[in-house]
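Renewal narrative, Specific Aim 1. Our central claim is that a sequence can be written position by position from structural information alone. The example that follows is taken directly from our test logs and has not been curated for this report. It begins with the C-alpha cells describing the chain, in the order in which they were read.
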C-alpha cells in the first residue's frame, strides 16, 4: 500500500463538530425531492407527471441527450409537484411519501452498465474531464474512489457507511469490469478497506486531501484524451449492494453540524428528505442561521422548507452574521479575527483551534495579483492562478495546457476561501469546464 503525503492545503476547524458516532433516527420525511441541478451535465426530460404514483427506484426523468441515463424516485409515493423556475427550468420534483416499502427489484445478471443506468446509481458518479455525469458507452481509464471527506465539519464516511461496508468488495468487482485500468481507493491514515481487487493508497495531509481530483493528480493524473470516473466510498457500497440484492438503498446518514445547531450529531434519514423533518428541534436561531446542504466550501445554500441535496450526507448551519455592529467591520483588527495569513494576531494562538465564522465575505472583489495563494491551497501539479486567468479570458488552448482536464470546481473551493481577491473561483471553473465541453462536443 502506497502512502502520499501532501503539504499544501489547510484544515478549517469550525465550531459545531459531531462529538460521537451515535446515530439518531429522524422522523419519516413529510416530503422528498430530487433536484436536477445536483447532477450536472444532465438535461432532464420528465417520465412522470404531477399526480402520478411512483415506487422507490422508478424513473422520474431521463437525460435528453442520453435517454438511458435515469434519475429515480428515492421513495414510493405521489409526485406532488414538478417545480419550475425561469425558462421552465426544473428546480425540483417533489414526492409525498405514502409510507410504503414498495421498490423496484433489478435483475443483477444483466449488463453492469445497463443496470447502473436503470437503477439511477449512474448519476451518482462523476466523469473527468468536465466533472459531469459519465457518458454511457465510454470506458474509463481508471476509477477513483475516496474513502474519506476532509472538508470542514465533514462526516466520517465510515459512520455513514455503517453495515454497508460489506458491499465494498462487490462494488469494486463491478467497477473493475467496466474499466480498462484499476479501481483506486484513497484512504486516510489509520483507515482500512477490505477490497482485494482495488489499489489502495493512503493520503496524509490537510484538506483537500479527501478530494478525488487531488488523489488522482497525486497518483495517476488525467491527461487530454483520457476519461476517469470518480465517486465516494458510499456510492461504491451502494453499487455493491445493488449487484448483491437487486435493490438500490436510498437511506442515508446525515451529519448535522455547525455552531448554530443545538446538538451536532448523525441522523438517519432518506435521500432528498425535507429539511423541516431532518432539522426538527435542531436550530438555535433560524433567522440568524445560514443552512448549507453540504460543507461550507462547496455546499448549497438552502432554506428550512427545502430538501437535502446530493450527495445527501451533510448539513452545516453557521451564523449568517454574528457581529452586525462590529467596529470597523471587515477592517477590524480584533485579536479574535481569523485569517490563514498573519494579517491578524490570531496565528499566535494557533490556527487549529475551533473557531466561529459567519457568512460575510469581508471585502470586495479585486484584481488578481500574483501571490501564490491558489498554489498553496491546491496540492496538484497545475498553476492555479494562470489557469483561472485562462478560463476568464476564454483561451481554450491555455486552459488545456494548464491542466483543466483534471480539475473540478471543488478542487478550487479552498483557494476561493483563502483568495484575497474574493473571486468566485468555483463558478469560474464550472463555466470554463462547461465552455470547453461545448467546444469539444
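The sequence written for that structure reads:
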Amino acid at each position: 500500500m502506497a502512502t502520499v503525503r501532501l503539504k499544501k492545503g489547510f484544515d478549517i476547524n469550525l465550531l459545531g463538530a459531531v462529538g460521537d458516532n451515535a446515530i439518531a433516527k429522524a422522523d419519516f420525511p413529510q416530503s422528498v425531492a430530487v433536484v436536477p441541478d445536483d447532477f450536472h451535465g444532465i438535461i432532464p426530460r420528465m417520465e412522470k407527471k404531477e399526480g402520478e404514483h411512483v415506487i422507490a427506484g422508478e424513473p422520474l426523468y431521463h437525460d435528453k441527450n442520453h435517454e438511458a441515463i435515469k434519475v429515480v424516485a428515492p421513495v414510493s409515493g405521489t409526485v406532488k409537484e414538478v417545480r419550475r423556475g425561469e425558462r421552465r427550468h426544473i428546480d425540483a420534483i417533489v414526492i409525498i411519501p405514502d409510507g410504503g416499502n414498495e421498490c423496484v427489484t433489478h435483475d443483477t445478471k444483466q449488463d453492469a452498465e445497463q443496470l447502473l443506468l436503470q437503477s439511477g446509481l449512474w448519476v451518482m458518479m462523476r466523469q473527468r474531464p468536465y466533472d459531469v455525469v459519465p457518458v454511457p458507452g465510454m470506458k474509463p481509464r481508471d476509477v477513483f474512489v475516496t474513502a474519506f471527506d476532509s472538508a470542514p465539519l465533514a462526516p466520517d464516511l465510515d459512520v455513514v457507511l455503517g453495515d454497508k461496508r460489506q458491499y465494498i468488495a462487490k462494488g469494486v468487482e463491478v467497477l473493475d469490469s467496466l474499466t480498462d485500468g484499476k479501481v483506486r481507493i484513497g484512504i486516510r491514515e489509520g483507515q482500512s478497506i477490505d477490497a482485494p481487487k482495488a489499489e489502495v493508497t493512503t493520503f496524509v495531509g490537510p484538506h483537500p486531501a479527501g478530494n478525488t481530483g487531488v488523489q488522482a493528480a497525486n497518483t495517476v493524473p488525467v491527461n487530454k484524451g483520457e476519461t476517469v470516473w470518480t465517486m465516494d466510498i458510499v456510492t461504491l457500497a451502494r453499487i455493491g449492494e445493488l449487484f448483491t440484492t437487486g435493490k438500490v438503498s436510498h437511506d442515508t446518514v446525515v451529519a448535522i453540524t455547525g455552531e448554530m445547531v443545538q446538538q451536532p450529531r448523525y441522523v438517519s434519514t432518506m435521500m432528498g428528505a425535507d429539511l423541516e423533518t431532518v432539522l426538527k428541534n435542531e436550530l438555535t436561531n433560524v433567522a440568524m442561521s445560514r443552512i448549507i446542504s453540504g460543507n461550507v466550501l462547496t455546499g448549497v445554500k438552502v432554506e428550512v422548507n427545502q430538501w437535502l441535496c446530493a450527495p445527501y450526507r451533510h448539513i452545516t448551519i453557521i451564523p449568517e452574521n454574528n457581529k452586525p455592529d462590529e467596529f470597523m467591520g471587515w477592517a477590524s483588527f480584533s485579536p479574535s479575527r481569523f485569517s490563514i495569513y498573519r494579517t491578524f494576531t490570531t496565528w499566535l494562538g494557533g490556527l487549529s483551534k475551533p473557531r466561529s465564522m459567519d457568512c460575510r465575505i469581508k471585502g470586495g472583489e479585486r484584481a488578481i495579483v500574483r501571490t501564490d495563494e491558489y498554489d498553496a491551497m491546491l496540492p496538484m501539479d497545475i498553476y492555479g492562478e494562470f489557469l483561472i486567468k485562462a478560463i476568464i479570458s476564454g483561451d481554450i488552448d491555455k486552459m488545456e495546457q494548464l491542466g483543466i482536464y483534471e480539475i473540478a470546481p471543488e478542487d478550487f473551493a479552498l483557494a476561493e476561501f483563502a483568495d484575497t481577491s474574493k473571486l468566485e473561483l468555483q463558478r469560474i471553473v464550472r463555466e470554463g469546464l462547461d465552455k470547453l465541453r461545448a467546444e469539444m462536443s
